[in-house]
Amino acid sequence: MKKTKLGEFEELVLMTVVVLQAEAYGVEIKRELEDRLKEKLSVGSIQSALKRMEEKGFLTSEFGEATQKRGGKRKRIYSATPYAHRVLEEMKDIRTQLWSAMPNIATS
Amino acid sequence: MEEIEGDMEEVFAENLAEYSVKKSRRLYNREVLKLLRPALVRGLGGNHQLNYLGMLQHNLLITLRGFKRHKATFLINLIGLSTGLAAALLIFLWVNDERSVDTFNEKNDRLYWVFTNFTLPESVLTWDYTSGKLAQAIKEEFPEVEDAVRVGNHFFRPQGTISHSEKNFEVNGLFASPNFFQVMTYPLISGTTERIIQDKNSVAISESLAITVFGTVENAVGNTIDWESSLLNQPFVVSGVFKDPPKNATEQFNIVVNYQALIDAEEWAEDWKGGYARTYLLLKEGADAEQLNQKIARLMYGKTDNNKQALFIKPYAKNYLYGAYENGIQVGGRIENVRLFTVIAIFILLIACINFMNLSTAQASKKMKEVGVKKAIGANRRDLVFQFLGESILLSLLALLVAIGLVVLLLPQFNEITSKQLEFNLSDFILPLLAIVMSTGILAGSYPAFYLSGFKPVAVLKGKVANLRGEEWIRKGLVVVQFTLSIIFIIGVITINKQIEYTYSKPLGYDRENIITFTRKGPESFDPTPFLTELRVLPGVTSVGNMSGDFLWGNDNSSGYSWEEGDVDDNHLFKSPRIGYNIVETLGLKLVAGRSFSKEMNDDESKIMLNETAVKFMGLKDPIGFQLEASPDDFKEVIGVISDFQYGSLHQEIEPMLFRFRSSGDDFIVRLQPGTEVNTLEKIKTIYAKFNPKYDFEPSFLEDDYRALYSTEDKVAQLSNYMAGIAILISCLGLFGLVTFTAERRSKEIGIRKILGASQVVVVKLLTATFTKTVLISIVLAIPIGYYFSNEWLHNFAYSIELKWWFFALAGISALLIAWLTVGFQTLKSAKVNPVDCLKNE
Predict the structure, then answer these.
(1) Which of B8, B9, B10 to mutate to test the interface with A (most CBs of A within 10 A)?
(2) Using the beta-carbon criterion (under 8 Å), do B13 and A69 form an inter-chain contact?
(3) Which residue among B3, B39, B40 sits closest to A75, beta carbon to beta carbon?
(4) Domain ranges of chain A
(5) Which residues on A lie below 8 Å from B8 (Cβ)?
(6) Neighbours of B256 (CB within 10 A)
(7) What is residue B171's three-state secondary structure?
(8) Which of A37, B24, B475, B834 is 20 to 30 A off residue B721, Cα-Cα?
(9) What are the Transcription regulator PadR N-terminal domain coordinates in residue numbering (chain A) (predicted)?
(10) Alpha helices in B142-255 (DSSP H)
(11) What pTM, to 2 d.p., does this model score?
(12) Three-class HEC string of B571-628
């Protein structure tokens, strides 16, 4: 966890990328997250999170095909790096450990 | 950011399906605003800088591509400027070193040296020495003098050997007053300046001598040495150790003893009539040296009975560069060489800079299309100025780097030629160097920067370029300057080399081959007769003789002779060496009349010989047997007349000479049988060691000693040869670059001419003619200037060659030939070119 510095929103976006697989590009991620979080997101917030994570080495990207709907502009398909997978695993482990260590106050 | 745009489009399309167009637009705009975040947008301010940096990168790229594309021009430019810079830099190192000589004293600005102008009937002699009593007297009589030092002058230096625990070491000493170390800056390692040579039985020795004799500095102090020389023979206590005199000090010594020791040996050292001491004065802060100079002038009049000695003072450090006098007036000295080489360095630098400018401007005019295109795209003038200036500055900085590398590489060889130990300290020179290089760069770049950038793009692109005539004139003018300087150099080199050759080959009136000389060192009381007898019988020795003083230096003078009745005080100063038997025969001097000193006739000091000039000077009709009055009632009989020969170096004219007799001279001259030199020298050495066990045998060939008299001229000749070579090389590089450029420019003209039937010869003539004209103009300009300078230099010699017309013809023709050779290659290339190749592009 030390060097990774993965923010909460970033983690969500990253997991969405993993979930969406080949369909992981800007608007699709936005749509998926909007569905799950039940709130409106801006294009900018998603894009900046993607760029930042790409710089940090969690994501790689390549251009996909262009569609009519996009005014002839190509999509940028993101995919998670093995490093990102490892960090996600780690975070999940830490969370489960914390959950199991928690006294049953909330549930009882 | 294609993907973001795409995303926006997609979202917009979605929104459009859901909401009205208006709302979709509004949403779209809001989204766009939200996109403005640091992660997605780079700072606006940064954008501007990026452009700036980009332009710089672009300019650099264009420059480097330009270098790559025009490799020849680039290399010529680089080599020309860097060799010029390197040569100038080396010379400036040398000049700097010459100027630094003797300036090491801390109180240098207040340190003065007292000189004497000694008046003779027809001339004035300038001595750098005075009476030994003068220092004390000046200190007492003139309040502005803080302190005065006396040291034994160069005739009275204690040398010989010191011995310590059975080992002998040769030393080079100095007699000095006790305050010597307080006034002059020779830092002490051990001992105090006030005490070090207070009494006459203590000495101070140099660090290196202390280490060779005692191993360490600490062991030296307090120890005793035995010192034996022609002036002293007694034990001394080492009272202190000083650092070796710096290498830019003219006075070099490794042992110092109290001046009192000289007085003990020679009472005249403490007499107003003796000239035994050099006197150095330390003036008080703010004292007026000029005023003191006037007050001091007549000081000696009262101390001696006559008014012949006028004193004057001169800054201590000045004597090295301004050490030559004629009739009591300062006429130059080493400063002349310093000036000569400063001028040469400036000339070379000038040639190199002109070259650089010429080629850069020529190159730049090829860039007119580039200027046009750039301007059409929207580059403003400032950017173009910046680009062109940057390019030439970059090139000149590169040249500077190469030049520094060259200097570091060549410095050892240069030191060998100049016999100096120069060091290259970049930090001392970097600022002036940068200034020179930057200004050359800016000057060379300013033509394209300010002139070309002013063109109208349309005109340039259409090929309607304004008339470039003026530019060509400037360029040709610069070439003329370059070649004029080079031809002056060639004339100078021919003159210098011819004169040196002349001095070596001129018959001097005596033999120089197979003759060795050596000086016996050691105690005064020595009878040379048995030594000479043993030498004479050696199989390899043809002849041997002895005299007083070095034959080549020719500085033994005497005066006070009279040869007409009633004329008692004719004070002509005669060159008057004191020679023993056999000298005339050994040196191969020719007798015109009479005989030379001979043992068989029992000749002694009552006899004298003259040279032809002396006979003429005195107006003697029948010299043999003439009684010359040396001093009242002391007559010397003339027994022989020697044919005139060159006494001393060719800087001196042949003067009236008297040959006095002296049987006990310490300078031996031996003529060897050719072919047996090594063997015989070995034998002489053994005999020398037998008679003079404590001293080394140091023979030298007269021929070599004679050459050594001209070492300064030799160095000047060598250096100027190199410098002239460099100057010519740079000029030729420039010419080559220019002809390449011209040929390229006129390639269409040449093509058309060839198609119309011009032969190769016509084309070559066409291209060569213009350059021939420029070189011819240079020749016309250079000849009078070269004549003037060569003549000035030759005036330094009493016997010199005459400037012949063919020196100038040779210089001119060689310049022309060199120019043709340089140009020829390129002209032939363009003459041979297939006209189709140069005409097909339009």
Answers:
(1) B10
(2) yes
(3) B3
(4) 8-101
(5) 43
(6) 24
(7) coil
(8) B475
(9) 19-89
(10) 180-183, 207-214, 217-220
(11) 0.69
(12) CCCEECCEECCCHHHHHCCCEEEECCCCCCCCCCCCEEEEEHHHHHHHCCCCCCCCEE
Residue B780 pLDDT: 92
Q: How many residues does chain A have?
A: 108
Please judge whether A43 and B5 are an interchain contact, meaning their C-beta atoms are less than 8 angstroms apart: no
Provide the shortest C-alpha distance from residue A34 to chain B (in Å).
Answer: 13
Q: Given pLDDT bands bounded at 50, 70 and 90, which one contains residue B39?
A: low
User: Phi and psi of B280, rounded to 5°?
Assistant: -115, 135
Residue of chain A whose Cα is closest to the Cα of B35: A44
Q: Test A45 with B34 for CB contact under 8 angstroms.
A: yes
pLDDT reading at A2 higher than 50: no
Report the distance separating Cα B446 and Cα B386, nearest Å: 10
| Pairing, β B233-242 against β B202-206 | parallel
Query: Please, which pLDDT band fits residue B463 given cuts at 50, 70 and 90?
Result: low
CATH topology of domain A8-101: Arc Repressor Mutant, subunit A (1.10.10)
Distance between CA atoms of B688 and B674, rounded to whole angstroms? Answer: 21
- For residue B105, give both structure tokens: 């004293």
Q: Using a CB-CB distance cutoff of 8 angstroms, which residues of chain A are in contact with residue B39? A: 47-48, 51-52
> Beta-strand (E) ranges in B78-160?
111-119, 124-127, 145-152
Is residue B44 predicted with pLDDT exceeding 70?
no
CB pairs under 8 A between A and B: 69
**For residue A107, is pLDDT > 70?**
no
Report pLDDT digits (tens) over B556-581: 666 667 776 545 445 566 778 888 88
Is the model's pLDDT at A108 over the cut of 50? Answer: no
Q: Tens digits of per-residue pLDDT, B224-281?
A: 888 887 778 888 989 889 999 988 888 889 999 998 888 888 777 888 877 788 999 9
The reported pLDDT for the residue numbered B280 is 92
Three-state helix/strand/coil letters over B32-83: HHHHCCCCCCCCHHHHHHHHHHHHHHHHHHHHHHHHHHCHHHHHHHHHHHHH
Residues of B in Cβ contact (< 8 Å) with A66: 6
State whether A74 and B6 contact (CB < 8 Å). yes
Q: How far apart are CA B120 and CA B126, in angstroms?
A: 11
pLDDT digits (tens, 9 = 90+) for A11-39: 888 888 888 888 888 888 888 888 888 88
Short-list B277, B269, B195, CA closest to B237? B195
B3 contacts chain A (CB < 8 A): yes
Find the mean pLDDT for residues B526-535: 83
Is B6 in contact with A47 (Cβ distance < 8 A)? no
Taking the CA of residue B18 and the nearest CA in chain A, the distance in Å comes to: 14
CB distance B668 to B546 below 8 Å: yes
State whether B2 and A71 contact (CB < 8 Å): no
> Hey, what amino acid is at B297?
A
* Min distance A82 CA to chain B CA atoms (Å): 24
